[in-house]
Amino acid sequence: MFVITLTRDHINVLQQFLLSNKLETAMWLSRLFTVYCSIMFILPLCNNLPFQNTSVLKLCMHIHDPN
């Protein structure tokens, strides 16, 4: 089995690389976030949480009866 071990030196090198390429890092993070949001929109993993149904119900009630 292949195991990756991160030492303090590896973390320091990675941190130095990310800080020296701030714009590219920010662009890649925004791309990953966009892909994540797109996947969660199409295939939500938490689609049966109880508070989602109540919040949708409250929104519908507010739209039909604004008082």
Which stretches are poorly predicted, pLDDT < 50 over at least 5 residues?
none
Query: Level of helix content?
Result: over 70%
What's the total helix number? 3
Overall, the morphology is elongated
Structural class: mainly alpha
Distance between the termini: 63 Å
How many strands, what sense, and barrel or not for the largest sheet? none
Any idea what the radius of gyration is? 21 Å
On the 0 to 100 scale, the average pLDDT is 78
Number of DSSP-assigned strands: 0
Series of secondary-structure elements, N-terminal to C-terminal: HHH
* Total count of domains: 1
Which percent band covers the strand fraction? under 5%
Pfam families: TMEM33_Pom33 (PF03661)
Transmembrane segments: 28-46
GO cellular component, one term: membrane
Keywords: Membrane, Transmembrane, Transmembrane helix
